[in-house]
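Async update (no meeting this week)

Hi team, since we skipped the sync, here's where things stand on the single-chain job. The sequence we agreed to prioritize is pasted below, unchanged from the tracker. I ran it this morning and attached the output directly underneath so nobody has to dig for it. Comments welcome in thread, and please keep replies under the output.
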Amino acid sequence: MTRPSRVLVLVAALLAISSALPAWAQTDPSEVSGNEMADGPWTGWFTAAGVETYAEEGVTATVSIEDSGTFSFTVADGSTSGTWLSAGTNIWHTDPGQPAMLTGTSNLTSSGSIAGDRTNLTGTGTTSQSGTLVIEASGQTITRPISSNTPLTFSMTVTGVSCEAATGTLTGSFIRGSFIAINGASFDGDVPAEERVALIDGLAAYQEDFNNFTNGLGWGANAPEGASMPDVFPIADFMDLMADAEAVLNELRNASACVSLQVGEDLLERWDTPNTAEIASVIESAAGAFAFRADTVRAIVNAGFRVGAIGSGATDQTAAASAEEALRSQMEEIVNESVGAHDECANSDSCIFGTQDVFTAAVIGSQMGWTYEVVRNVDGEARSISAGRLLQMFSVGSSDGSE
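Output:
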């Protein structure tokens, strides 16, 4: 009754970042440059799904088919040859009110060969199925094993080729789906294939540098056991890391249309949001753990702006706000230390003694829209002063009080 040979499927979409096909697998066929695959080695992913319904002995059963897998083949002189494999599940069920109720799940593993030409390919192979089917009828429950090894065939038709990506349809006895293939040898466009590899390598290299930096602070997940923070925040190393992050962002923003097809047009968003939030978290933690000089805060603010970790353009505004408040607090402390150390403005309500640090706090604070709680020498009370107002009140002097 189970007839497992009739419910086999071939499907797949094998990408670590998503269970669905990536953006570049959904290219509109009307926008592609042709539908013939060039000579060379191709690697790809295919996805399909299907439902089989059959009736026997007054019972109508439905099997929903899902699976995932990959393929690789070589096109040479117009002929194609290669292999494929997949894995997935069948889910069995019947609607209520029937003489018997069927439920069950079977696992599928499939593999075989691919052959064809530049536009049409045929996959052949074998599917192994194993699982359990539960049948409930007349007050009894019967459990039956599902086990089979069955040959199968499917077809793949190329609908378009753009840059290095070929897209198309996949059709089997009970399934319909799509596939994407990447040509690793040739290139149908004006950007070398190495650009894609360099971009992915750049992302990986930056992440390694980031992990090494946080590990060096004793904060990273892989920090040595017993590691402690350095006495002084390594601002030079941090700025090098921010320069790397900025370079990666520029590469993502300026990636060619072909490379965007390959790595996913949403890669900038997928990379930018979590990584800039990580940077903002490091800034917040560092501002709480180290005593910064004003020029250190200025450097961090400017770098954070450029990579989108802080400021109105930050992709994670919650993380950005926390980092900004930690930096503002540092600047406020610097202003108060400078004001409290000098009496030059003690008898004036219109100025605050200013060192270079106070001037930096005023400039950066104006850029960020910050307000400082400043203890004025004239009366010893704390007052809220905007950074813009602080600039107007600034009285130039040296750190030792001389003018």
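Quick observations from my side:
Confidence is low (pLDDT under 50) at residues 1-33, 185-192, 395-403.
Residues 194-329 form one domain.
Reply here if anything looks off.
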